[in-house]
Amino acid sequence: MKTVKLGEIADLTVGFVGSMTEQYTESGVSFLRSLNIKPFEISSEDIRFISEEFNTKISKSILHEGDVVIVRTGIPGTCAVVPKEYDGCNCSDIVIVHPNNELVDSTYLAGFINFWGQKQVENNKVGAIQKHFNVHTAEEMLITLPEIDVQRKIAMLLNDINGKIKNNQKINDNLAA
To answer: Domains, the chain, ranges and CATH?
Structure first.
């Protein structure tokens, strides 16, 4: 097991930063914001859309299946893996991590950041009024990295546990109804 900087095992960038109010459309390309990123999942609640043209214009922030997205402002450090159904969507003001899949498993990485990385995020937030987490800080984040086969086993366990949690939430929602 070794410890590496996140920037050594992944390419990082940030989603579009700027005014969005005039860019939203009724339908089109899904556009994620910080409030859509929950630990280990992406919520479609209050999701926005942008045009194909604007999506092309801000193509550096297009998300792909297996990317890890990290909240910058709001609850900094909260992260999830981009699932297949959000491949090709775009985002605003979120740290985007394109992991080297030969070195790190996306789900393992999300688990590490959601649990053990939170202290690093908390200690490195910047900003005078509203604290946020930036790309440079994310690149410097220290990640404990077991062998890739061990990471994949941990990822399978995390997926199983998260699946059971979602199933129990559905059962509770049905019982409450």
So the answer is: 2-176 (3.90.220.20)
Sheet of 10-14: strand order equals 10-14, 94-99, 68-71, 79-81
Instruction: Tell me the pLDDT tens digit for each residue of 15-60.
Output: 999 888 899 999 999 999 999 999 999 999 999 999 999 999 999 9
* CA gap 45, 16 in Å, rounded: 20
Q: Which amino acid is at 149?
A: D
Check: CB of residue 173 under 8 Å from CB of residue 50: no
DSSP-derived pairing of the beta strands 90-91 and 41-42: unpaired
Q: H-helix or E-strand containing 140?
A: helix 135-140
Q: Phi-psi region for residue 88, left (φ > 0), alpha (ψ -120 to 50) or beta?
A: left
At residue 69, the 3 state secondary structure works out as: strand
